[in-house]
Amino acid sequence: MATPNKRQLSKISSSYIALGVILITLTAILGTSIFMRINEIRIEGTSLYSIEEVVEASGLSAGRNLFLINPQSVSSRIREELPFVSAANIKRILPDTVVIEVTESPAAGIVNFSGERYVIDSEGRVLAMISGEDFSLHGLVIDDLIEIRGLEIDDATIGRTLRAEFGAETRLQNMQDILAAMAREGIIPDVSYIDVSNSANLHFGYLGIYRVVLGERRHLRQKLEVLVPTVEDIVHRHPNTPGDINMTEVTDVTNRVKFQPT
Predict the structure, then answer these.
(1) pTM exceeds cut of 0.70
(2) Of the residues 41, 85, 140, 216, which has the fewest C-beta atoms closer than 10 A?
(3) pLDDT truncated to tens, each residue of the chain (262 aa)?
(4) In a shared domain, residues 254 and 157
(5) Taking a C-beta distance cutoff of 8 angstroms, is the pair 191, 207 a contact?
(6) 8 in a domain, yes or no?
(7) For residue 87, what is the domain's CATH number?
(8) What is 138-166 written as a DSSP string?
């Protein structure tokens, strides 16, 4: 009987190794399919939507394979179905849990487009369309939202950022920057309107009695950072006096503000 040579032994060894790898892979897949199934779905960070709404929007359910879900697809589905969600982070926790961390976008303003009114967040993303006068969604009070004036809009698709008409892109950018700065300073609830019709004369209504004149967009952050202490001083010196707060001369090196009673 012939004895296998080294080359034949090497081929036999390689075959056994390959077979072993295949068996291990199949065992791992089988084990994952049988044991790594979703038993619990936890939702964190939601206040505008119920846990059931987020779970339904995710498309996940108990019994699905934990490792066969696509986190990016799940996140996209949630953001498409629930416009007030700006981000959804999907985490797997062995052996059987999925955690969905939701970040919501608070409503900030209202814009008019094609005879309808749309709710937007501080980044200019459209959250909802207002239907009729008796609008109610997630406890929103329409009168508490900022009216955006002087912006020509080309598209207002729910879940997407506003698109300005050709030539009005700068106005849209001005609005986004102002809203973002207001959100940082926490003053959005105190603002009644923002007028972006003139990029050299940006202004907004504040606390119901003041018109805050920003002028150009330059030094916007500095202007809004000094607004609250400026108003506190004005209230002390001119109680209950409406007027214009001119911040056009505020820069990163000076906080020169003028108040003109009206």
Answers:
(1) yes
(2) 216
(3) 555 555 554 555 566 566 666 666 655 555 555 567 899 999 999 988 999 999 999 999 988 888 889 999 999 999 999 999 999 999 999 888 999 999 998 899 999 999 899 999 999 999 999 876 556 666 777 778 999 999 999 999 998 999 999 999 999 999 999 999 999 999 999 999 999 999 999 999 999 999 999 999 999 999 999 999 999 999 999 999 999 999 999 988 888 999 999 8
(4) yes
(5) no
(6) no
(7) 3.10.20.310
(8) TT--GGGSEEEES--EEE--TTSB-EEPT
Q: Which two tokens stand for residue 222?
A: 């500095």
Chain position carrying tokens 């797997």: 92
Residue carrying the six token digits 């209230």: 235
Write the DSSP assignment of 29-94 as a string of letters.
Answer: HHHHHHH-B--EEEEES-SSS-HHHHHHHHT--TTSBTTS--HHHHHHHHHHH-TTEEEEEEEEET
Mark whether 56 and 137 lie in a shared domain.
no
Single-letter residue type at 101: E
Residue found under tokens 């498309």: 59
Range of the domain at 49: 40-104
Locus of tokens 């698109």: 163
